[in-house]
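DM from R.C. (forwarded with permission)

"hey, sorry to bug you on a friday — could you get me a structure for this? deadline for the figure draft is monday and I only need the backbone to look sensible"
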Amino acid sequence: MKIGIVYYSRTGNTKQTAKILEEKLKEKKAEVDLIEIEPVKRPGFFTAGKAGTKQLELPIKNTDFNMGKYDIIVVGSPTWNGRPSSFMKSFINKASNVQGKKFALFGTGMSPLHAREQFKEIMKNNLEKAGAKTSDNFLALQFRRGKPVDGEQNIDNFVNTVLKIKNE
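My reply, with the result:
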């Protein structure tokens, strides 16, 4: 099984989560590629928050995302004001071969529970508009000072569900 983990990380928390997922999936014999979304310019805190709130696209360096070779794509983003980062919308709009592909989602941040649901729904809607299929499985991790403080106990369940998505 070939899995692509696509993520954007502003502070390193989402990258850390992506690497944990990569390691755990590889332990279960999955072939995994990490794909980091690279911004043209790292936005400031307020610019990032405003763009995230309005779900605007922000420019990214890497625009050649061919998702055709993956059985499953795992997408991760920080939560900005209860929403995924704007770079995720840029990725979705630039990625090719996402139609019919199965996606699983994860988010990082300090958002309360209701904001996590909003994040998940926005990501699902954006992916489904692009023709992708999304799993109801969602991993949310809260971080404080670079360390997970909530949700870490759900990582193994998320990994197991990702491995089962192909058969859904």
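R.C.: lifesaver. The domain at 2-156 is CATH 3.40.50.360 (Rossmann fold).
me: no worries. The chain is about 35% helix and 30% strand.
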